[in-house]
Write the structure tokens for this entry.
Amino acid sequence: MENKKDILYYLRNLDLIVTGLSVVALIILTFANVICRYVINSPITWCEEVQLWLFVWITFLGAGAAFRSKSHVCIEFLVDRLPHAGQRAVEIINYAVVVGLLIFVTWASGLIVQQMEMMGRVTNILHIPFTLIYAAVPIGCVIMILSFTVTFIERMRYFPVSHEALEKETEGEG
């Protein structure tokens, strides 16, 4: 049973694990290329292509992980001053707008990935298909939608419907 929980934990955090490993690889590659360029006077020719690929994937996979851990920047100054019903309404509207935009970006980036596949474009040195690089956008957006949906459901489940419900909840704890 414990082994099954470990596997599920790693699957749920696969985007975060891949992002972390990609950041480490990006740092190592960048450092190695700087050393080769300025010490040996012979830069790694393929390094820039791999850095670009890693940077795109880090951005979009990391965004999904940020949604899950609620690490995106938000300004709640005005929302916190609303009554609880107003706060709940803002949460629902926010969810609808964000998911709507992510669905649009997923669709539009999927079209770009299809175009790259039809054109057969590859990078100049390593011949990595641009499809693999651009696929980070729709994949990352789907992960963001899933992560945001899970956190939204959790927030709504524990979000008090009214101020009275919040007071009853705090009375029960004390």
